[in-house]
Amino acid sequence: MNEKEMINNLIDKYTDLQRIKTAEDSEKEINYQLRVLKAKLESFGVITSDLDMN
């Protein structure tokens, strides 16, 4: 990963946290972001069930 990709990832994390912080329903926003991230990880072959907290 190059420096620009790292900066982009950090900006994404920052904006995601801002969205959670300002959301009317934080739980709904968190669940949405988890679904999006899970889809991205699975598109790269990462098995997310091993990472889930039960």
**Low-confidence blocks of residues:** none
Strand content: under 5%
- Say what oligomer this is: single chain
Biggest pleated sheet: none
Average of the residue pLDDT scores: 94
Report the radius of gyration as a whole number of Å.
13 Å
Overall number of domains? 1
Structural class: mainly alpha
Report the end-to-end length measured between terminal Cα atoms.
31 Å
Shape: flat
Number of helices: 2
**Secondary-structure element order, N to C:** HH
The number of distinct β-strands equals: 0
Helical content stands at: over 70%
Describe the protein:
The protein has helices at 3-22, 26-43. The N and C termini lie far apart (31 Å). It has 2 helices and no strands. With 54 residues, it is mostly helical.
